[in-house]
Amino acid sequence: MPAAVKLENVVKRFGALEVLKGISFDIEAGQVVALIGASGSGKSTALRCINRLEQIQSGTIEVCGHRVEDPALDPRSLRQDVGMVFQSYNLFPHMTVGENVMLALKRVKRMDRSAARKVAERVLRQVGLAEKIDNYPEQLSGGQQQRVAIARSLAMAPKVMLFDEVTSALDPKLTGEVLRVMEDLAKAGMTMVVVTHEMAFARRAADKVIFMHQGHVHEVGDASILTTPETPELREFLDHDL
Amino acid sequence: MGDFSSGHMIYLLNGLMWTVLLSMLAMLLGGIAGFAVMLARISQRRWLRRISLGYVQIVQGTPLLIQMFLMYFGLGVAGIEVPALVAAALAMMIYSSAYLGEIWRGSVLSIDNTQFEAAETLALTRWQSLVDVILPQALRIATPPTVGFTVQLVKNTSLASVVGFLELTRSAQVINNSLFEPFLVFGIAAVLYFAVCYPLSLWSRILERKLNAGRRQA
Amino acid sequence: MNYEFDFAALAPYWQSFLAGAWVTIQLTVVSVALGLVIGVLCAVARRSGVRSLRMAAGAYIETVRNTPFIVQIFFIFFGLSSIGLRLPILWAAVFALVINVGAYAAEIIRAGMDAIPYGQIEAAEALGLTKFQIYRDVIIMPAIEKVYPSLTSQFVLMMLTTSITSQISAEELTGVANNIQSNTFRSLETYVVVGLLYIGITFLMRGAFWALGQIAFPRRRRLGLL
Ligand SMILES: Nc1ncnc2c1ncn2[C@@H]1O[C@H](COP(=O)(O)OP(=O)(O)OP(=O)(O)O)[C@@H](O)[C@H]1O
Ligand SMILES: [Mg+2]
Hints:
The complex is a heterotrimer of chains A (242), B (218) and C (226).
Chain A: E1 3-14, E2 17-28, E3 32-37, H1 43-50, E4 58-63, E5 66-67, H2 75-81, E6 82-85, H3 97-107, H4 113-126, H5 142-154, E7 160-164, H6 172-187, E8 191-195, H7 199-205, E9 208-213, E10 216-221, H8 232-240
Parallel strand pairs in A: 3-8, 3-9, 6-7, 7-8
Antiparallel strand pairs in A: 1-2, 1-4, 4-5, 9-10
Helix pairs in contact in A: 3-4, 3-5, 4-5, 5-6
Chain B: H1 6-41, H2 46-60, H3 64-77, H4 84-109, H5 113-121, H6 126-156, H7 168-179, H8 182-217
Chain C: H1 14-46, H2 51-65, H3 69-82, H4 89-114, H5 118-126, H6 131-146, H7 148-161, H8 173-184, H9 187-216, H10 218-223
Helix pairs in contact in C: 1-2, 1-4, 1-8, 2-4, 3-4, 4-6, 4-7, 5-6, 7-9, 8-9
C-alpha cells in the first residue's frame, strides 16, 4: 500500500531561521499519527507544509499522489484531499454553523444548497451538534466550536486530516468531547496527523508516534515509545510535558 | 442684506443639488475604482502592489485642485468634450479611489490572517476567500471611516467650482460677485454644506462607537 | 490624440516654480506651528469642566470640519475686506489655514489625551501638581506622541490644502502655476510639473515630521517605534 503522506528530507526556513532541518517520515492510509515535541520544535510548521500553507525550501512531500513541493501544483486540488483543524478553531464568525460547513461544499464542490445542507446535517450529527446548525459560532462553547471546525473539514470528505493542537485552548471537560470525536474518526479509518500534548490520547489512538526535537524527527515508533522512550530527549520531554 | 432675495436662495439650493449629485457620482465611481485599488494593494503579485502603492502616493501627494486642473486640461488636450460635471467627477474618482482604497485595505488587513488560512485550507480560491469570508467581516470595520470619508468628498466637490462647474460654492461666488455680501452669501453656503455634512459626521461617529462597543464585548 | 508635450516652454520659469514652492513651504510651516497651538488649546477646552468652554470649542470644531475650506477662506478674506479690513493676502491665507487645521488637530489631539490612562493623571494630582502643570508635564506630549502619525497625515493634507489659497490670489505653488499656464498656454505641462513638486514637498514633509518625532519623542526612538 502506498503511503498517504510521505516527507523526505524536508527543509523549511523562515529567513535565516531553519525550522525543519531535513525531516522524513511516512504515514500509511488509515493510520493515526501523533506528532509530539517541545514548543518551537517545528510541529505546526511540518503540518502547514503538508497542505502547503508554507512552501518548503528543499526535500519532497507527497500527499495522496500530489507532489506538494512542485510549484506547478494547484494547492486547491491538494486541499480538497487534506483537511485541517486549527487550535483557534477559525470558524467564520459572520456565518452560522451550517453556513460554515456548507461554504466549501457550495463553492468548491459546486453542490446546490439542499445537497450541501444534507451533507452539513450528516457531518454535524457525526460530531454531535446536529441541533446547532442554525446557531452562530459565538453562541457555542469552545469545545462545540472546535467540533464544528472538525465537521467543516470533514464535510469535504478529505483523505487526510491534520489537527494542530486542537484541544489546547479548551478546559479538560471540553477537551474530552473533542477527543472523542477524533477517536471516532480514527476508528472509522481516517488518516490523521495529530499535533498534540494529550499523551493519554496519543497512547490510546495513535498507530505511530513521531517525536520532533529542534527541527529534526528525533524518535519514531508505535505508542509504546511513550512509555519506554529510547532517546534521553524524549524521556525528558515526557517527564516535563505531561 | 435686503438685496438677498428668494431667487438667490433658490439659486444656491440649485447649486447644492449639483453638489450632492457630484458627490454621489464621485462616491460611486471612486468606490468602484477604490475597490480595484484595494485589490491591487493586497494582491499577491508584487508588481501590482508596487504600481498601486505608487498610484496612491501620487494621488495622496498632490492637491485635488491640481488633479482637477490636470483632468480638465488633459481631457481638453485629448480632444474629449465632456460636461464640467463629468470632468469634475472623473477627477474626484481618482482622488477618492486612492483614499477609499487605503481605508478598505486597512479594514481587510485588520481581519485576522487565520480567517484567510482557514478559507484556503477548505480549498477556496483567493477570490472566494475574499468575497465570502474576509469582505463581509471587513465591511463592518470599513463602514465608519467610509462614511467619514464621504464628508471629505462632499466638502471637496467645492473645488469643482474652480474648473467652472456651477455647484454650491460657484453659485455663492456668482451671487457674491453681484451683491458683494460675502459674510452673508458664503455664510449661507457654509450652513448648507453643514446641513449635508454634519449628519454624515454624526452617523460615522455613531457607527464607530457601535463597532467599538461590539469589539469590547467580544 | 497627437498632443506634443512641450516642457521646454516652461524652462524660463523655473525660478517662479521654486519661488511658489517656497511660499507653499512657508505657509505650511507657519500654519502647522500655529495650528498645533490652536489644536492643543481647543483639545483642552473640549475636556474642560466648564460647560460653555466645551460647547464653544465643540461648535468651532464641528463648524470647521463640516464646511469646505474654500468657503471658509472666501468668508474670511472677502468678508473681512467687505468691512474694510484688508489683510495682506498671505496673512489672510495663514489665518484661514490655521483656523481650519486647528479644528482637525484639536480632534486628533483630544483623542490622544483621552487615551492617557487616568491613573497617570491621578498620580500627578497626588504629587500636588496643578492642572496646568499636569497638562504641561503629563498629558500634552504623551498625547501628541500617541497620535503623531495621524497628526502627520493631517498636516500633509493641510499642505495640499494650501493650494486653495491660490483662489484668493496667493502666489504659492498653485497660484504661480495658474499664472505660468496663462502666459505659456502650456497648462497640462505646468500642472504636471507642479504636481511633481507637490509630491516632492509631501515626501519632504513626511521626512521632516519623522525627524521631528525622533527629536521630540526620545522614548519612541529608543523603543524603535518611529
Ligand atoms: N511565519 C513564521 N515566521 C518566522 N518564524 C516562524 C514562523 N512560523 C514559525 N516560526 C518559528 O518556527 C519555529 C517552529 O515553530 P512551530 O510553530 O512549528 O513550533 P511548534 O512545534 O508548533 O510549537 P508550539 O508547540 O509552540 O506550537 C519557532 O521558532 C517559530 O518562532
Ligand atoms: Mg504549534
